[in-house]
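dumping these here so i dont lose them again. two proteins, back to back, each one seq then structure tokens. dont judge the mess
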Amino acid sequence: MKVLVTGTAGFIGSHVAHRLLDRGDEVIGVDNLNDYYEVSLKEARLARLTPKSGFTDVRLDIADREGMEALFAKHKPDRVVHLAAQAGVRYSLENPHAYVDANLVGHMNILEGCRHHQVEHLVYASSSSVYGANESMPFSVHDNVDHPLSLYAATKKANELMSHTYSSLYGLPTTGLRFFTVYGPWGRPDMALFIFTRKILAGEPIDVFNYGKHKRDFTYVDDIVEGVIRTLDHVATANDQWSGMQPDPGTGKAPYRIYNIGSNNPVELSRYIEILEECLGRKAERNLLPMQPGDVPATYADVQALIDDVGYKPSTTVEEGIAKFVDWYRDYYKV
């Protein structure tokens, strides 16, 4: 297949592009290499992709309407994996307009490109953050998600609604994937594991929010990628049993699906830090702090729908995943 992958200089996008190329697909990679975090890391991720046969590197902002129209017209992808977005919950408190441009305008441009160029299937990144104030555990795609606690979460919820509209109006098969705290090699420097590793190795104290009592469904990147690829290959279909009298948020009369991708195994932040300490051979100096605005105390993914539909099963323990991240980090930064 010819697959358009947005965010190929990003953490998950680069891993997904690798997997697609390794199995023989052609990948049109789109990224604008913005400076939300160190551009050199993004360039290093791309440098691993560009030598591969079948990869086309396109430097473009997905919010560029004319540019995206020209991209779809030129390359005519069979399917699309849309992972580019302005990430981060806390940053959305500082720079909300960045989320409107990338996550709303950008998603709109992707939908329009898919609509006008007969794309077979759009798979896009949503987020566990859409569950917001929901306290019913584990989080299910059949739950209501109308109470987001950050603008980032609200834009991801909006992406799901926009996609449903296009599935309903134009018959475009769309699948939204709610990622749960992804970590692993080539990860994002703004995420906890990266920050903790850097500071512990430097002998600096780490900020531990909610006094370390947060629980997160930490999910290793290889397990995420496996779910993305399996979902891409399993084109969304309509739910024949869907009823407007009892509307199911996770499916629809249109070819529209929502899935959670998580490890299905929440781990307390304090335990996560302990495992990291063991892998680094050093103890962390912990600066215990209250919960940050926009954060939620726990996430826990019900992944049964994904297991039933595509046979997804996460297989990497948090101990294995953190060890692999530390090995990569020491090698990449030579520490």
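---- next one ----
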Amino acid sequence: MYTYKPKKFYGVVFATTWFFWLFAIMFNEGLTCTLGMVLGGLCPAVTAIIFVFSSKSDALKKDFKRKIFNFWKLKPLYILAAVVLFSAIVAGSILLSTAFGESLDQFSFTKDFSFTGVGLLSAFATIFLAAVLEEVGWRGYGEDSIAQYHSWFKESIIFGFVWALWHLPLFWIPGTYHMEIRQMNVLYMINFLVSVVPMGFITTWVYVKNGRSMLASIIFHLFINFMQEKIAMTQNTKCVETIVVVIAATIIVLTNRDMFFEKRHVGHILE
């Protein structure tokens, strides 16, 4: 039986990611900065692949391949439900924000991305790397390595905090969305970090309900990134959105108690 190594995995991910992102912060601009940011974004996926395929566990390797390639085993209704849910979160947040003076004009698409960019690969790094390569890392090894020892509820809490902390250096890399909101108001930065934790419950729900499928998580992450980047929500509305996400996550947990609180999978994640 394979023994998951969550502390070692996240230690390597943080050390390598933050090394490259601190490198990007130090060089501050140009191709070198862009390269550092992109290489940092690659680290969760590369680390997961190394952990899986350097192991001597055929079960772990087979499980990894299944999670990313067995698209015919996806459950489209759960993916559709997640897409509808997040669309409702965005719409509800905009409607609620009008009580605080925000405009219904937020129900429109932006012409450009909400960041100024760190070179030609900025949009790629934000939209593609975050959605695809993060999910290969988190769902390819990281999330299961925690769930092997805890319920999905506790795993979601732990992973949510870890995921939020992982983003931290991005708030000091020029041209990123994260740095832009930090410069607007440090409260927007705090809001982003706080919002990641309840969002972890929703992404876990999508992942587990689709038979622990990385592909389902990638699709949902891409949709989230698109909505967050292209819908013309203000940062004040995104603060409202965090509250709505907490409510949505609470409802999901309460209506999926068996999934979140059962421990049948603990010690048997590969079975």
